[in-house]
Design brief:
Elements lengths: L11 E9 L5 E9 L5 E15 L9 E16 L18 E7 L3 E16 L7 E8 L1 E6 L1
Antiparallel strand pairs: 1-2, 1-5, 3-4, 4-7, 5-6, 6-7, 6-8
Length: 146
Amino acid sequence: MTWYPTNANDVVLTVSRVERNDAGTIESTTTLARTTTITVDDFSFDEEEDMSALSGISNANPLGISQGDVEYSFSFTVQGEDAELFTSLATDDGRAVELQIQAVGNSYKKVMGGARAGTRNYSASSGDATEFEVEGMATSSSDSEI
């Protein structure tokens, strides 16, 4: 069987806005953008766990590892006029709304839930397409084979 590595062009990135009811359960999701119809230059999903070595007096080598908090973060950059689609990443008062971000490749799916885009940057350079850079954090991350 021939192995075909997943290329960035084979990944579909979908960003959806999450609507919750008064009980806090997800009532609906509205797709804001899908990379099959918009231009995304790059994306990144990160998971980080705070760890520190436990050694102490008279122990030069660690005797164990302390595991701390886990953090999930994401970033992506949208190019051109497609950036206008992301005006709904925040409410009128500038507060980030809840998102679900999903990346689907040839045989792998990654979903970040409870995501909020805390950094939203719209920029341009002479001669280049405009860019909308988004960075944020999420409360959950899941991986699955498809």
